[in-house]
Design brief:
nine-stranded mixed sheet; globular; alpha+beta; 10 helices; about 20% helix; four-stranded antiparallel sheet
Length: about 450
């Protein structure tokens, strides 16, 4: 049974609150996003791709989950001069707009993704998709237990075909996210996906004139009606919207589905090795200035541990090159009760400090539990907007001693930039008035970007 997904006001409010709480992380993503064109052929049908590497990847040794994003027919190209076409929609668009989450946390585990965005010259077949996966496995530090495919329209159709064509392909994947996939599967394809217990999340618009939502619903129903059915039922969400573009909403990190997760959290919870016991369950991990700025306190807690050999706490000044601070050995490798750990960095770096927590289990496997940032130079920047709610204008004031260019964006609840103004800041206090009377009533965000800093304020247009 499919679900009609309405964006009621309470959902929009949740998105707004999530947006605001994530502002700091997104500001850092602006500075550290690694989106690099690679004019490298992964196979005969793709001559180039973009790579996104998570903060901390360069100079490290940890392995990361991989998302391969498959584009639509409108983004077909030669992989070189036409490669930027793939940045227009879905996951690549959010990376390019610095809105892609640096990390997600689900079930106590924090994950950061490698993302590979190939451009195909023609409609990709199974070999083309598999070539991209193989190239990524051979050239990046990919956790092969956590390879995810995400695709929309043509790319979604290629995804359905790849996963449903053979058990070999289906069993390479930890989970898939399909949006308006241009392929109606048959029972044999559905049986292959079900037998692999491949988690599937599929979305569509109810008024899609290109790929009817019934294609998505029927594919999901076929998977769930397989004999035997999958251990993890396939799920679908149908947005109460018109048009073919369901991917902007689907991959928006602020779209929270009925399971309480966004698309990236939903993917991150699955692994091919999910049946193996996790080395530990992390319940807390923080880094903050100690009282009187005496240093930085790094604290983490676990609710259970299994075969835990030791932790390594590392520090970096740029989020890329890390050095070991300390090795923390638990009292014993196994514990069924809560444990708390603490470390005081008495000589933090001037400026930004990035702390990375890794864990080594008894077999030597390295597990990555995220990065926390602490700055010893508190920002003096303040951004105010009024009136809020507003009717026809917004007065914006930025108090920041640094001069330079800045940009002001109005963003809607789906993450789309509706308009942009640019200006030159010459004095410590900058202000301007922006007319917004023609915007439909609703929830919006004002984003002000100055240098590598991004400030966000939510406002309501009456």
């Amino acid at each position: 049974m499919f679900q009609i997904y309405h964006l009621w006001p309470k959902v929009i409010l949740l998105s707004a609150l999530t947006f605001l709480s994530a502002t700091t992380a997104f500001a850092q993503a602006e500075a550290d996003t690694t989106l690099t064109p690679r004019f490298i052929a992964t196979g005969p049908n793709s001559n180039g791709f973009y790579e996104y590497l998570p903060k901390g990847y360069v100079g490290g040794s940890a392995k990361y989950p991989l998302i391969i994003s498959l584009h639509g027919e409108g983004e077909l190209g030669n992989g070189t001069t036409q490669l930027p076409l793939v940045l227009n929609d879905a996951i690549p668009m959010y990376i390019n707009q610095h809105l892609f989450p640096e990390s997600v946390t689900v079930n106590g585990q924090t994950s950061s993704f490698i993302v590979i965005i190939p451009q195909f010259a023609a409609w990709p077949d199974n070999t083309d998709v598999d070539d991209v996966i193989t190239y990524a496995e051979q050239n990046y530090r990919v956790d092969r237990n956590r390879i995810y495919l995400a695709g929309y329209s043509m790319g979604g159709g290629a995804l359905w075909t790849y996963a449903g064509s053979s058990a070999t392909y289906a069993n390479k994947l930890a989970a898939v996210f399909v949006v308006a996939g241009a392929k109606a599967m048959n029972a044999q394809m559905a049986d292959i996906i079900a037998a692999a217990n491949l988690p599937v999340f599929a979305t569509n618009n109810s008024g899609d004139p290109t790929i009817s939502y019934t294609v998505t619903v029927d594919n999901v129903d076929l998977i769930n009606s397989a004999s035997p059915p999958p251990a993890i039922p396939a799920i679908d969400t149908v947005f109460n919207a018109s048009g073919h573009d369901a991917w902007t909403k689907s991959f928006n990190p602020f779209t929270i589905y009925s399971n309480g997760l966004n698309a990236y959290q939903w993917l991150a919870q699955y692994s091919l090795s999910a049946t193996a016991p996790l080395p530990l369950t992390l319940t807390g991990y923080t880094a903050a200035l100690a009282p009187d700025n005496a240093g930085v306190d790094i604290d983490w807690t676990t609710s259970s541990e299994q075969n835990n050999k030791y932790f390594i706490l590392q520090r970096s000044g740029d989020g890329q090159t890390f050095k070991d601070l300390d090795t923390v050995v638990p009292a014993s490798p196994n514990s069924a009760t809560a444990r708390a750990y603490s470390y005081l960095d008495q000589s933090p770096l001037a400026g930004n400090n990035f702390y990375r927590l890794t864990q080594i289990d008894e077999s030597g496997t390295v597990n990555y539990y995220g990065i926390r940032e602490v700055s010893l130079t508190p920002t003096k920047t303040t951004l105010t907007i009024n009136p809020n709610p507003c009717t026809d204008h917004l007065f914006v004031q930025l108090d920041d001693p640094s001069p330079g260019p800045l940009a002001v964006d109005i963003v809607d609840a789906t993450g789309r930039i509706l308009r942009r103004w640019t200006s030159q800041k010459q004095q410590p206090v900058w202000s301007d008035t922006f007319m917004v009377g023609d915007l439909p009533p609703g929830q919006y965000f004002l984003q002000l970007t100055a240098g590598h800093e991004r400030l966000v304020r939510a406002f309501i247009k009456l």
